[in-house]
């Protein structure tokens, strides 16, 4: 898929868009309604960037996700309900336009990996921690695992569905991204992982964050 050199950017608090993730959105602000219209009329893509926490003015995080519009339904009042699918992580470059919505130059960030044996071992550890996390009964949203999650039986057995879905993933980068966006509750942690291009380093961060959640749940239960 050829990605544009620049795109409109939606800035949202506590939201991170990872490659392959599914993100449902309700579009109501006039600027983003316009951005959606322009995207639908062209490449069907725009970026989602997390608002920098504690910033006094609207400030996007430096790394964002490009999303492809999979479905969009306009409501009678001009708002829209839509489904966005992440396709790439990108670095936001210079602001090319601010009105009616922000447009940034983009640089695509490609995942890198140097030691396949270490990546394999870390991937096994991530799978182990995901299983442990479910044993503790920690909640897990399903929206990022696909639009057909409920139809596939996820509603009746969410833990089993997620574990089966993750078990089918052989690409360590994809696994790390989907576990990050599906199971981590802290948006700042998710942003760290979105910004980490090296897969081995990303897996190490993910293991650390999963351990924190698991340890925190254990302390509350004791």
Characterization of the model:
This protein is an alpha+beta fold and 222 residues long. The chain folds into 2 domains: 6-109, Archaeosine Trna-guanine Transglycosylase, Chain: A, domain 4 (Roll), CATH 2.30.130; 116-221, Methane Monooxygenase Hydroxylase, Chain G, domain 1, CATH 1.20.58. 38% of the residues lie in helices and 25% in strands. It contains 6 helices and 6 strands. The chain has helices at residues 30-40, 116-135, 158-167, 172-183, 187-195, 199-221; strands at residues 6-12, 22-27, 45-50, 63-74, 80-97, 103-109. Strands 1-3-4-5-6 form a 5-stranded mixed beta barrel. A hairpin with a 5-residue loop joins strand 5 (80-97) and strand 6. The longest helix is centred in the last third of the chain and has 23 residues, at 199-221. The protein is globular and about 45 Å long. It starts with 5 loop residues before the first strand and ends with a helix.
């Amino acid at each position: 898929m050829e990605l544009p050199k620049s795109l409109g950017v939606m800035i949202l608090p506590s939201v991170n868009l990872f490659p392959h993730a599914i993100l449902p959105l309700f579009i109501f602000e006039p600027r983003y309604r316009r951005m959606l219209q322009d995207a639908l009329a062209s490449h069907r893509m725009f970026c989602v960037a997390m608002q920098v926490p504690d910033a006094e003015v609207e400030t996007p995080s430096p790394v964002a996700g490009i999303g492809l519009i999979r479905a969009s339904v306009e409501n009678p009042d001009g708002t829209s309900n839509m489904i966005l699918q992440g396709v790439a992580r990108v670095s936001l470059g210079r602001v090319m336009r601010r009105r009616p919505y922000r447009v940034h130059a983009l640089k695509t960030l490609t995942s890198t990996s140097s030691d396949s044996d270490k990546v394999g071992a870390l991937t096994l550890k991530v799978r182990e921690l995901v299983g442990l996390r479910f044993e503790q009964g920690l909640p897990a949203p399903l929206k990022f695992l696909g639009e057909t999650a409920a139809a596939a039986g996820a509603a009746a057995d969410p833990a089993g569905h997620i574990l089966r879905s993750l078990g089918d993933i052989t690409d360590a980068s994809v696994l790390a991204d989907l576990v990050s966006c599906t199971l981590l509750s802290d948006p700042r942690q998710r942003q760290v992982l979105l910004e980490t291009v090296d897969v081995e380093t990303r897996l190490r961060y993910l293991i650390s964050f999963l351990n924190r959640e698991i340890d925190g749940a254990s302390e509350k239960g004791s």
